[in-house]
Amino acid sequence: MSLEGATLCAYVACHVVLFVFSLSQSRLVTIRRRVGRTPRAAVPPIEDSAWPAVTIQLPIYNERYVVERLLRSVAAIDYPRDRLTVQVLDDSADHTSILVEQLVPELRAEGLEIDHVRRAGRQGFKAGALAYGLHRARGELMAIFDADFVPAPNVLRTMVPHLQDPGVAAVQARWGYLNEKESRLTQIQAFMLDLHFGLEQPVRDSAGLFMNFNGTAGIWRAAAIADAGGWSARTLTEDIDLSYRAQRRGWRLVYLEDCVCPGEIPAQMSALRSQQYRWMKGGAQNARIHLSGLLRSNEPWHVRRHACQHLLAGSAYLVIMLVILLSVPMALLMGTSIAFDYADYGLAFAISTLVLVRVFRAARRPKGAAENLRFVVDMGAFMLFTMGLSIHNGVAVLSGWGRRGGEFVRTPKAGTGDWSSTAYARRSVDRRVLVEALAIPYLAAGLVVGWRRRRFAFIPVQALALAGLGWVTGASLWHRMRADGRYGDGAVRKMVWASTPSSRRVHQ
């Protein structure tokens, strides 16, 4: 096969993959309409003397701006004090540990059994911290909250009753957003996350499909963690890995859509990029690890099919990246050595987009003219942003398919303050921004060539990608300059150095 033929085949194949993926997502809408939003069967009440022992695990790493909020919200949880313990799994290397040391005695004096747990190193990152705490925990149930989440006082009394079923391994709450209105960047992230929490998770739960624990705002049965092999750092998304191992062992996960636990959305572009990279790479790692065994398993075919779709969802970014990059040589070659014009006006791309509009509409469920108008605006912004992130996330997917493990780069949180004035505001630009910046003139050249040669099939893809890359690249550079201008590098180094604990004690 010639190079031109291979280019055409690859380009068309990518569009076919995206079309199949959009249809598989649309299938979730059909299932939801068939199953309906019937209320979950009531769980039996728990007698006051029968509430199980719960250990709340709080894995933190350099969280000086949110750690007090977290600890005080956990201390306010309504649960029998004689059956509740809290572990602050603190791997911090800055002032955070001093804040925890100051708060813990105060909370103990209020009757909360709380331990400040420190390790000698950060081996295994979050998974390692959770495993370390599990070996020292006294509860049969393990509630997990990340540093940026603010659990409500009734969260345990709402979720724990669902674990009376001995076949349930974990219960997951829906994420809420503390700072959704902070910026356009946080708004578009909330829009993206609502697809998962407003459609994917409830459908998988109600239809008996495989689903995943989301790393925070949930409760695990300690026996299920042990039976599934424990927490592992072999992927960067240890929550998905444990979820699939547990479900392959016959355990079930429960999703409570009406139990909302709010958390913080990254407000700085570099924080979002590191979070997306971790999620996309970890998702690909889990697909590489679990797909083969899942396909050979005895699970019903529809369960295996939807699980494969779930595991491969992040890999769609790799396909989008290829579509964008291949569109330029296609614009050059179409009508010359490639005589076949597969679609005059990007028909395959348009159909896939319309199917995804249906999916997001089902997740958001807008009502009235104002909400529908807002949905149209958000959907357009989502399309631009997705195309802009495609190269960054596509590279992450490639890395995940290539190797296990990797460094767990935390997502910095600013609490209620301005992120640009914090010590965690990143004052350097991700080197992958250079690749995205180079893609901008590349796509611009493709647009010019396609327009002059009247090959309009590639213009929608290239125009969206060009605008999206401009958004992502521009925001990355602007946020770096904003952080630099508000809080100088020397001051950051001085503060971090001055607030770093002189020793790293291990409390057991």
Oligomer: single chain
What is the global morphology?
Answer: globular
Order of helices and strands: HEHEHEHEHEHEHHEHHHHHHHH
Unreliable stretches covering 5 or more consecutive residues: 486-508
Q: Please tally the helical runs, counting DSSP H or I stretches of 4 or more residues.
A: 16
- How big is the Rg? 24 Å
Q: What proportion strand?
A: 5-15%
Give the helix proportion (percent range): 55-70%
Give me the side-by-side strand order of the main sheet. 3-2-1-4-6-5-7
Q: What is the count of β-strands?
A: 7
Could you give the distance between the termini?
A: 64 Å
Largest sheet: 7 strands, mixed
Structural class: alpha/beta
Mean pLDDT: 88
Provide structural commentary.
- By secondary structure, the chain is an alpha/beta fold.
- The chain is about 55% helix and about 10% strand.
- The protein has 16 helices and seven strands.
- Strands 3-2-1-4-6-5-7 form a seven-stranded mixed β-sheet, with helices on both faces.
- Helix 2 runs parallel beside helix 3 and helix 14 (about 430-450) runs antiparallel to helix 15 (about 460-485).
- The model is unreliable at about 485-508 (pLDDT under 50).
Report a brief summary of the structure.
Helices cover 55% and strands 10% of the residues. It has helices spanning 3-35, 67-75, 96-109, 125-134, 155-159, 184-206, 222-227, 238-248, 269-295, 301-312, 316-333, 347-364, 368-402, 432-452, 459-486, 489-499; strands at residues 54-60, 84-90, 113-118, 141-144, 168-177, 218-221, 252-263.
